[in-house]
Specification:
The complex is a heterotrimer.
Chain A lengths: L1 H32 L3 H5 L9 H17 L8 H17 L4 H11 L4 H14 L5 H13 L8 H17 L5 H11 L7 H21 L9 E2 L2 E2 L4 H26 L3 H24 L70
Antiparallel strand pairs in A: 1-2
Helix pairs in contact in A: 3-4, 4-5, 4-6, 5-6, 5-7, 6-7, 7-8, 8-9, 10-11, 10-12, 11-12
Chain B lengths: L1 H15 L2 H17 L10 H33 L2 H6 L5 H35 L6 H23 L4 H15 L5 H4 L4 H12 L9 H5 L6 H28 L4
Chain C lengths: L1 E13 L6 E13 L3 E5 L6 H9 L6 E6 L2 E2 L9 E4 L11 H11 L4 H14 L15 H12 L6 E5 L7 H16 L3 E5 L3 H7 L2 E6 L2 E7 H4 L2 E8 L4 H8 L4 E5 L2 E6 L2 H13 L6 E6 L2 H19 L1
Parallel strand pairs in C: 3-8, 3-9, 6-7, 7-8
Antiparallel strand pairs in C: 1-2, 1-4, 4-5, 9-10, 11-13, 11-14, 12-13
Helix pairs in contact in C: 2-3
The chains are: A mainly alpha, B mainly alpha, C alpha/beta.
Chain lengths: 354, 251, 313
């Protein structure tokens, strides 16, 4: 019996050593899965392996408590309470995106510094932090952080860096990119034309940067089919084209009503600048600016010979060679037959000049 | 070997008839299903909550089933069926290993039941189950096996209530011990903490619920060493239990 | 070769931190020969069950040792030749009688072809055929006891150790068990059992051992131990004057059915009295011994031992 006990103890020791080796292997594998070492090294109160589930339950409670906030206005006390709860939740689940992003926005008006810290914690702890972390961080730093006594320049710099980081992730929506652009050109003042020019410079810079750094997620640009809407520069240039268009409409309207010659001259200069912005974007192929009126920058469709917005003659495309799209009616450029005269359109119809 | 299988089957059959375990089992699946109703209350996190709930329920069911291990040998001694078994040509090692096998089988079965039922509930709601879900469930079952081995060991020198508490303490310590080396980051204390965390059960090695819940797919690279850790640690505990059982009197 | 042999076996139970010691079995030396029905008697707490556990290797002796069927105590292989019925068994309630016996047969390493017929035979023998598929939780104490005995006999053991086998059984059941024990003896088996029902022990046992406070008080054959308590010399005809003379020699004199009976304290005194009666002309003398009951013997032995211990103190 004693001999058996010795064998048992020997087996126990051998198995323990093997378990240590296996455990180390698991740790190595885990460190590969958890790219963020800050998460690996965090010290927290263990919750019996049910951290994430408990975080969910606490989150549900918190959402209900958020709903009880009267008038949507959070007092600093309530903000501090929510911030503590969010800290606990994100301790239990370090990758709880909603707790970081939604939670930070909730408490940002009452405790902006803690909201920023929460988002920075999220960025540090998350394996692949999404653009929402950075965008919300930029938003809170831009709008709420100055209210907490943090110097304005510091807030804006933090905001700009956060927006840029959000855009560099590549999958962010347009409003995030525009927020970055607005923040980057906030020094341009309030004159819309000057702002437009600054924004154009910004887009061109983004475009240039994207070509200078291949590893950057902003890379992309044009291709043979036109501007690449899958890149930040492409999307911003499209937006900028629209902005130029609406600005030129405003300027044309003002020009029409203006009686003062000096002012009319000034408006014309602005119009020229806006058109120049548009042309630059088109030249770079960043926006689909080929079929736009040169006068008011409005887009026109196939078979149109005059701008529907300002009445100026435009460089028509896509009309029927037989009937020339009588009465200015639309001719389907890629249709098999002209729907006015019935002539087979084929490929020749598409972009032939009058 | 035949006697070992007979003991394992008998143990499995006896614990499997405990209605409380099935109540926990059914409740778990209902809770997972209920998580799906929390869509609005969780601000659109219902799917993740269902997954987290399923993994947490697997763990609870595994723990509850493993706790039966702490009651098994004391009950055999109390009912004198242990005397009966040991009056037959059966070694004490066979009794301990047979018991562990039976309870482990039940732990694996119960965790698998909850895992599959929960997966069906999640799939019926969202048409997909997170990658690595079943691997995480397998590691939960492995943790339950380690707890069962701890339960058997503790029940050999404690009464049933204390052994039950002991299993829970092992569960709690096992989920906390990995923090020790980080708390004692430097100096001699760190080495001691590392040594202690190696000797005590470290369920962090088997806990990938958080990662899977956050969409990380875990595969064989984690699963194999994880299961190996559980197997080796359970073997170590069982070997100690065998040594204790061989040297103790059967009153 | 003796079926059971112990040599100064001692078992001391120690409480936590060794603050309290209880000597459950104290230098117990016991020999049970083969093909013998041995009754192991003793008051509650005497150490009977502890001794049985020591024999089966469930407890480890603190000193001393012994052999079971020639193998040292606790030997695993020899258990294939031993049958055991524990005291107040509470078998697995979720199993049926048949399943329980199958489980025990598997523990005994029996092949299915061997045990299936044996189980049927034992269920029949114990009168459990009709309830073979009923769960044990539905069984009465007596039925459980019969299932327990059936499992003890599954492997056709050479040595059967029964802890309180008759307890809880009705008179029919007791007779059945007694028949089984007698049958085992006829088959050449050795039966070692403890019991409180002394009348049955007296009827069944070849030898008895009385244990008190962990020590063997007496051990021997029933005939040897239960000595004649009184002897009555019966005389069919004797003179009345002689009766008066002989009355002084006897403890009591009775007249029954026309016969005189002179009771003396021992058979030797009876022999002497008989000679005197015959010398006086008494005719038709017979002697009738009155043996001590096992219960009286048991009580006297325990009291004597307790008194001796008190004297030692």
């Amino acid at each position: 019996m004693k001999r058996l006990s010795i064998i048992s103890i020997a087996v126990a020791l051998a198995a323990l050593v093997l378990s240590m080796l296996a455990g180390r292997n698991v740790d190595q594998q885990r460190s590969q899965l958890v790219a963020n070492q800050a998460q690996m090294q965090r010290v927290y109160l263990p919750r019996f392996g049910m951290d994430k589930y408990l975080a969910d339950l606490r989150w549900v409670m918190l959402v209900q408590q958020m709903g009880q906030v009267k008038g949507g206005k959070i007092t600093p006390e309530a903000g501090a309470y929510f911030a503590d709860a969010l800290e606990a939740i994100t301790d239990m689940d370090p990758e709880f995106e909603k707790a970081y992003t939604m939670g930070a926005m909730l408490i940002s008006s009452a405790v902006p510094i803690r909201a920023v810290k929460l988002l920075e914690k999220g960025v540090a702890q998350s394996r692949n932090p999404s653009w929402r972390y950075y965008f919300n961080l930029g938003f809170v730093a831009q709008r709420q952080l100055p209210n907490a006594g943090v110097p304005e320049e510091e807030c804006q710099a933090k905001s700009l860096a956060a927006y840029e980081a959000a855009c560099k992730l590549g999958d962010c929506p347009g409003h995030v990119e525009r927020a970055w652009m607005y923040q980057a050109t906030r020094g341009a003042g309030s004159d819309p034309v000057k702002v437009l020019l600054a924004q154009k410079d910004f887009v061109l810079k983004v475009h240039t940067d994207s070509f200078s750094d291949d590893s950057d997620s902003l890379t992309g640009g044009t291709n043979e089919f036109g501007p690449d809407s899958g890149t930040t520069a492409g999307r911003l240039s499209a937006w900028l084209a629209g902005r130029s268009r609406s600005l030129s409409h405003d300027l044309l309207a003002r020009h029409l009503l203006e009686t003062d010659a000096a002012k009319r001259q000034s408006i014309e200069a602005d119009l020229k600048a806006v058109r120049a912005v548009y042309d630059q974007i088109r030249t770079l192929g960043l926006a689909n600016a080929d079929h736009a009126c040169k006068h008011c920058l409005s887009a026109f469709g196939p078979g149109e010979f005059y701008c529907s917005s300002c009445g100026q003659e435009v460089k028509a495309y896509g009309y029927c060679r037989t009937c020339h799209a009588a009465n200015g009616k639309l001719v389907l450029p890629h249709g098999a037959y002209c729907h006015v005269c019935g002539t087979k359109a084929a490929a020749k119809v598409t972009t032939a000049n009058k | 070997m035949r006697d070992l299988i007979a003991i394992a089957q008998n143990t499995f059959g006896r614990i499997a008839r405990q209605k409380a375990v099935y109540f926990v089992l059914m409740s778990s699946v209902v809770i997972v299903g209920a998580m799906g109703l929390y869509g609005t209350l969780s601000a659109g996190r219902a799917q993740i909550m269902m997954l987290d709930g399923a993994l947490a329920m697997c763990l609870i069911v595994g723990l509850v089933t493993a706790m039966a291990a702490a009651l098994e040998i004391p009950r055999e001694l109390k009912e004198q069926t242990a005397h009966l078994i040991l009056s037959k040509p059966v070694g004490r090692a066979q009794v301990v290993i047979g018991k562990l096998r039976g309870i482990s089988g039940l732990c694996i079965m119960n965790v698998a039941l909850v895992a599959v039922a929960s997966a069906l509930v999640i799939h019926s709601n969202y048409g997909t189950v997170a990658p690595g879900y079943f691997a995480a469930c397998a590691l939960v079952a492995a943790e339950a096996v380690v707890l069962a081995a701890a339960g058997i060991l503790l029940s050999l020198f404690m009464n049933d209530v204390l052994a039950l508490v002991g299993v829970f303490v092992v569960f709690a310590v096992g989920h906390a011990v990995h923090v020790l080396p980080r708390v004692m980051a430097e100096g001699g204390g760190h080495k001691l903490a590392v040594a202690v965390s190696n000797v005590l059960p470290n369920f962090q090695h088997l806990d990938f619920k958080g990662l899977v819940g956050n969409g990380v797919a875990i595969g064989g690279a984690v699963l194999v060493p994880g299961l190996l850790y559980a197997l080796c640690y359970a073997t170590a505990l069982t070997a100690v239990a065998v040594a204790v059982f061989q040297s103790r009197d059967i009153h | 070769m003796a079926a059971i042999e112990t040599d100064a076996v001692t078992k001391v139970f120690k409480s936590w931190w060794h603050r309290r010691h209880v000597v459950a079995v104290n230098h117990l030396s016991l020999t049970v020969r083969e093909n013998c029905v041995f009754g192991f008697l003793g008051p509650n707490g005497a150490g009977k069950t502890t001794t049985i556990k020591l024999l089966l290797g469930l407890l480890t002796p603190d000193s001393g040792g012994g052999h079971l069927l020639g193998a040292p105590l606790g030997d695993r292989d020899i258990k294939e030749r031993i049958g055991f019925l524990p005291d107040s068994p509470n078998f697995y309630p979720h199993l049926s009688a048949k399943d329980f016996l199958v489980y025990c047969a598997r523990l005994l390493h029996l092949e299915k072809r061997d045990y299936s017929g044996r189980i049927e035979q034992l269920l029949e023998q114990m009168g459990l055929t009709d309830v073979r598929n009923r769960k044990l939780r539905e069984f009465s104490r007596g039925m459980l006891q019969r299932v327990g005995i059936a499992q003890a006999l599954l492997n056709n053991p050479d040595l059967v150790i029964l802890d309180e086998p008759i307890t809880g059984l009705d008179p029919f059941g007791r007779n059945q068990i007694k028949d089984i024990i007698r049958g085992l003896k006829r088959e050449g088996k050795t039966v070692f059992f403890s019991s409180h029902i002394l009348a049955d022990v007296e009827q069944m046992c070849d030898e008895i051992g009385v244990l008190n406070r962990g020590q063997m008080v007496c051990h021997g054959s029933v005939h040897e131990l239960l000595a004649e308590k009184q002897t009555t010399v019966w005389c069919e005809s004797i003179q009345a004057t002689d009766v008066e003379a002989l009355e002084a020699l006897a403890e009591s004199v009775v007249r029954k059915n026309g016969r005189w009976g002179f009771t003396v304290s021992s058979s030797a005194a009876g022999e002497a009295l008989r000679s005197k009666i015959e010398a006086c002309g008494g005719k038709g003398t017979t002697m009738e011994g009155q043996k001590e009951s096992l219960e009286d013997f048991f009580v006297a032995a325990i009291e004597k031992d307790n008194n001796a211990r008190r004297g030692e103190r």
